[in-house]
Amino acid sequence: MMHRRAFLQGSAAAVLLTPVVAHAAPEGLSAPIEIVDDVHGVPHIRAASIPDAFYGQGYVVARDRLFQIDLGHRRELGRLAEAFGVDFAKHDAAARLFHYRGDLNAELRRIPADVLACARAYIAGINARIDEVLADPALLPPEYAILGVTPLKWGIEDFVLARGGAIGNADDEIRRAQLAAIGMLELDAIVAPLRPNWTMTVPDGLDAAAVSPADLGVLRQGGLPFGPDTPVRDPAEGPMERANAGSNAWTVAGNRTATGRPILANDPHLGIGGFGPRHVAHLSAPGLDVIGGGAPGLPGIMQGHTDRFAFGRTNFHIDQQDLFVLDLDPADPERYRHNGGWKRFTRVDVAIPVKDGAPYVVTLRYAVQGPVISHDPAKRRATVLGSIAMQPGGGGAFAMIAINLARDWASLRRAFRLHPSPTNFHYADIDGNTGWQVIGFAPVRKRGDGLLPVPGDGRYDWTGMRDFAALPNEYNPKKGWFASANQNNLPADWPRDRIPAFSFRAPYRYERIADVLAGQPRHSVADSVALQFDTLSTPARQLLTLLPPTPSPAGDMLRRWDGRLTADSAPAALFEILWRDLGKRMLAAIVPARARTLVTEIDPSVLLGLLARPDARLPVAARDAMLRDALAAAWTSAQSLLGTDPAGWRWGRLHQVRIAHPLSRIPAIAAAFPAIEGGASGGDSYTVMARWLGDGPGWRVGGGASYLQVIDVGAWDNSVFLNLPGQSNDPRSPQYRDQFAPWIDGRPLPLLFSRTAIDARVARRMTLQGNRR
């Protein structure tokens, strides 16, 4: 097993001291694997077979991120209470509600044999590391001793069983129904304008007045009850994070780059503040050579490149969930109205093991549309969350393996059949080809558009799914580049009856990317890096044109500003304070009192549109007064927050980055895992360098691009990356926070790929040895 001194070697010393460590023979490994960690903590796995390479990936992610993947694994399997006690039992019940109830073996038979072999090997690699740390508890991450638990072993069935129950857009459906009930459905366009344009109607048979947040049932349970104060949630679970989660990606063909080779850039946007959502690894074996960022606990690389092509992804938008409202039989609440009669729920009784207590017994119910999330016999009402994830083939745990095994565009398109989640997939290969394909599964509805809850009586049921073949794509586009930033990128002539969603983001990031790429006929890797850290704010520039000409301290400062939200900018800080205040004032001005609990946010396009084009809701005189008052208030607030001298104001003084262990409310965890902080950040939700604010009244960074890559296709060693805050979650490791400062500074690191480049910057080596049993 790995020697502690080898693990703790600092980067500078490790270049000279590269210990070779031999490990015992683990089950499922056919030949020795060499794992070479470079100075940035990226493990380069050199295996004799493709499954063995995935075994190595499972091993290294468990080595670097064991508690992270273990906690996620327990949560998805509904096995928290057996480790942490009865307070976690209701969360286990909710997780088990979203376990797949079909034939697990049939799901596994859907997976090609080579893909399945790699998944089994990945799991074997995780379990090998677990066996290793259990045999030598000194190797366990510190959380285990503090919490008094041990890691849970993995099985292949777990990948098809746990489908995850997320709130998705169900709360949007509730909000719209509540607005419809008070005759103000049109106000939903203030919160979330429909993109593409669409006219909402209340589904036939829906009693909108009866809809309430209670219909979300178990989805409202909140975070896990760790710590003495408030429940702990994942960084991606809050409403602000869900509203902003997205990504940027662009692909530039060789005829528009400085080298004549394609460039592919990608920076996925996720919550920032807890565990890092990516772990970088390099898997190589005969027939496989792939490097990049993967999701800890899922096999394969999500964003990166093989020896043949580069690939990236951003969120596309497919409405993959519907909220169904069921009428219960007054004589028997275990029956619900469906297709003109009464149908009985499928019931599953489960006994959840509880640490130091009796099992927690609960009944899970399923209707034809999916899991029952709320069951209220007193109101003769139940609600069901219909979800693509719960359908046969709806689990996506094997998709990355299939993508990694592909060799070209044609074989990738076969791999896409295993990928249900909505994604803009970017591609560029060594032959100069570039491609974009939307992938994911879309429900086929009998009726309705998915925007409001629907009756569960059968009229709105799903009749099937469409896959990527029914979604847009481009191959070698004439303009020589394409980009996606979660904007509406459906073709203008896309059929109205096949619009997959209406939740595309405001186009500000995309428009900035497009403007830059269109003006760079000789784009370079450095240009892509600069664009990933670009802080020019289109909303800010638009607002500056609307400021009243009357002299004022705030107006005078902003009119001299270039609209860039850099960390060292005083006007940027003033703008953000002004922007927040204007949003509140606009909501107060245009939203009737009885709708204000429902309309609590304003889309930037709505805010700017009303300021630019006042109407009956906001006459010109009221608009002018609002701007004057907001400017004065923002100046006063800035002085209160940043001091009386504007020369000392900085956006980065407010917009700080802090990364802490998700369980840091437990004092012993907080002491063992020092927070990583002190980073002043620029950007906001609408800059290409997306660094949005977290939930609550503060100004701290809540999310953005924690992983970034720019790939020079074919000249792979020129590629660069960053993975915030580092590769390891263990504070004893030099990779615990070594990428924090480069990320703050915008200095990406080499993504080493060739054996020559890797061997010149080795931090440590280790060998796993053994024969397949």
UniProtKB/TrEMBL annotation:
Keyword Hydrolase carried by entry: yes
UniProt cross-references to Pfam families, sorted A to Z: Penicil_amidase (PF01804)
Active-site positions on this chain: 247
Cofactor note: Binds 1 Ca(2+) ion per dimer.
Signal sequence range: 1-24
Cofactor(s) needed for function: Ca(2+)
Alphabetic keyword roster: Calcium, Hydrolase, Metal-binding, Signal, Zymogen
GO biological process: antibiotic biosynthetic process
GO molecular function, one term: metal ion binding
Binding site for Ca(2+): 173, 319, 322, 497
Hydrolase is among the record's keywords: yes
SUPFAM superfamilies, per the entry: N-terminal nucleophile aminohydrolases (Ntn hydrolases)
Family assignment from sequence similarity: Belongs to the peptidase S45 family.
Protein name: Penicillin acylase family protein
Organism: Sphingomonas hengshuiensis
